[in-house]
Amino acid sequence: MMKIYENIERYSPVNEQEKRDKELILNFLKNNSDAFLRSNKLAHMTASAWCVNKNRDKVLMVYHNIYDSWSWTGGHADGDENLLSVALRELSEETGIKNPKALSEDIYSLEVLTVDGHEKRGEYVPSHLHMNVTYLIEAYEEEELKVCEGENSGVRWFTLDGAIQAVTEPWMAERIYKKLNEKLKTIKK
Q1: What pTM was computed for the model?
Q2: Long-range contacts of 85-88 (CB under 8 A, 24+ apart)
Q3: Residues with Cβ within 8 Å of residue 45, at least 6 apart in sequence
Q4: d(CA 154, CA 24)
Q5: Do 11 and 22 contact (CB within 8 A), yes or no?
Q6: What is the reported pLDDT for 150?
Q7: Do residues 158 and 61 make contact, with C-beta atoms less than 8 angstroms apart?
Q8: What are the tens digits of pLDDT across the range 50-103?
Q9: What is the number of other CB atoms lying within 10 angstroms of the CB of residue 32?
């Protein structure tokens, strides 16, 4: 856990949301030995990929069945403390992309996300928090895309503005995805 803790500690927040969420995530990691496991019903670590094309003018999104919205890819750490590996694995599983490339091993953003209670595989999952670390990933637009049955019902590339317009979760669109798109402007191609 020390490496991810140190990486989060070194991360420079870009706004108030990230500053406050960074404090919560570090505190959570310090005080929960099961932080990387879903057995922690209050919160657990997750990782997401903000997957862009080579020109950085499109983002790859999935239509997430639980959230009923277009969203980034990502998922639970499930014991894996290498969150970049989790983000890459989830991207491949959810989109069919075979050759994703991390543009950096550095954290791209941090966020604490609320998850409403829902049914998954016939079992009720109570409301909880995802202590999320996001990485910037690049993939080829030409790669074949594939829906991940049971998790999503669509996979497609959007323009950066088109992605924001497609999302039906206002908080995610305004507070998270817009921030991620803004940060892209500061990254060299």
Answers
A1: 0.95
A2: 86/46, 86/47, 87/47, 87/48, 87/49, 87/133, 87/134, 87/135, 87/137, 88/49, 88/135, 88/137
A3: 4, 29, 35, 36, 76, 77, 81, 83, 130, 131, 132, 133
A4: 33
A5: yes
A6: 84
A7: yes
A8: 999 999 999 999 999 888 999 999 999 999 999 999 999 999 999 999 999 999
A9: 17
